[in-house]
Write a structure and sequence with these properties.
GMP Synthetase, Chain A, domain 3, Ribosomal Protein S8, Chain: A, domain 1, 5-stranded antiparallel beta sheet, alpha+beta, 2 domains, 5 helices, globular
Amino acid sequence: MLMVEDVDLTPNPHALKFVLNQKLLNVETRQFPDQISAENDLFAKGIFEINGVVSVFYMDKFVTIEKAKDTNWGQIQKPFIEFLKSFDVNLIPAENEVKKNENESELIKQVNEILNQRVRPYLASDGGGLEVLGVDGNKVMIRYQGACGSCPSSISGTLAAIEGLLRRDLNPAIEVVSA
């Protein structure tokens, strides 16, 4: 039975990270910015049925829920715990096989390697994630996931820190933009 082991605050005042007693995913991260995007994922879809939930992000052993600004956590936490108790983890869609992309540029590989080692673990500890959407010249396009998606500090401070890290370790001309 799925259970919440811990609840962590995130830098986003409207998002909480719920640490669970078992893994949901081994490799993937899954971001659902709205209820429509969760139609084919019974786990995320069930969470969206809780009044006040505006986004769902999950990976490994945690779920980050973002609530509507006018909703209090008491309206979400108890229904979420009840949902977990009755949810069969076998209904979570299978993970996609990770394929090596031979066409992936060397720059994207290097960017992802640095992000995997130095950035993503910290974002995950705050209930979030980061996806590299692509590279155009020296411009790296990223998308924040989970609690980071609508957090004011990710839009300014974290973005600048990532850009500084990539400039120092890869190329001083790199520019990082959030999509």
